[in-house]
Amino acid sequence: MAVKSVALVAHDNKKKELVDWVAENRTRFAPLKLYATGTTGRLLRDNLERDDIHCLLSGPLGGDQQIGAKIAEGEIDLLVFFWDPLEPQPHDPDIKALLRIAALWNIPVACNRATAEFILTSAYMTDDQHHPKKPDFSDYTGRPVST
Ligand SMILES: O=C(CO)COP(=O)(O)O
Questions:
Q1: Are strands 5-10 and 78-82 parallel, antiparallel or unpaired?
Q2: How far is 39 from 17, CA to CA, in rounded Å?
Q3: Is residue 58 annotated as involved in ligand binding?
Q4: pLDDT tens by residue, 71-117
Q5: Can you cite an annotated GO cellular component (predicted)?
Q6: Hey, which of 15, 18, 39, 100 would you mutate to test ligand 1's pocket, going by the most ligand atoms within 8 Å of its Cβ?
Q7: How confident is the model at residue 46 (pLDDT cuts 50, 70, 90)?
Q8: To which H or E segment does residue 47 belong?
Q9: From the CA of 64, how far away is ligand 1's center (Å)?
C-alpha cells in the first residue's frame, strides 16, 4: 500500500521548520492527500498555494483528537508531527493521545525533520506491494467482561 494520506502537525516554534520542509518537498507531496491541524494547515495552505489541504480544528481546540480519530478509522497513512520538546502545551494529554493512537495503529510517525526525510524518501512511500501490518485487536475486543 503506497502512502496516500498524510497528517501534518507542528507546534508554534516548529511551524516554520515544517512549512519550509513541506515546501522544499512539494513535488513529493503533490499526489498526497493532506490533513493538518488548524493553524498548521492555514500556514501550509498560504505557503504552498494548495487549497485542498483538509484543515481540522486547531490542536488545543480538538484538532489533535480529530487527527487521532482519523488514524483509528484508517484514513491516515503517515503522521508528521513536529512537536516542541522545549515547551509545555496546554493540551499535553491530547498530544500524548495522538502519539499513542499512531503507535497503536502502527502508522509511521516522524517527530522531527531528520525522521521525516527518511520516511518521505523511502521506497515504501510509493510501493503498492508493501502493507504495514494491520494490528489485530480481536483478543482485546472479544475479551470476556463480566456484567
Ligand atoms: O497544537 C498543535 C498540535 O498539538 C497544532 O495545532 P495548530 O496547528 O492549530 O497550531
A1: parallel
A2: 14
A3: yes
A4: 999 999 999 999 999 999 999 999 999 999 999 999 999 999 999 99
A5: cytosol
A6: 39
A7: very high
A8: helix 38-48
A9: 7
Residue nearest atom 3 in ligand 1 by C-alpha distance: 59
39 lines ligand 1 (CB under 6 A): yes
97 with 27: CB under 8 angstroms? no
The structural domains of the chain, with segments of one domain joined by +, span 5-141
Q: Are 91 and 64 in contact (CB under 8 A)?
A: yes
Active site residue 77: no
State the residue for C-alpha cell 521548520: 17
Listed in sequence order, the residues at least 6 apart from 133 whose beta carbon sits closer than 8 Å to its beta carbon are 106
Q: In what order do the strands lie in the sheet with 5-10?
A: 54-55, 33-36, 5-10, 78-82, 109-110
The CATH architecture annotation of domain 5-141 reads 3-Layer(aba) Sandwich (3.40)
Atom of ligand 1 nearest to the CA of 37: 8
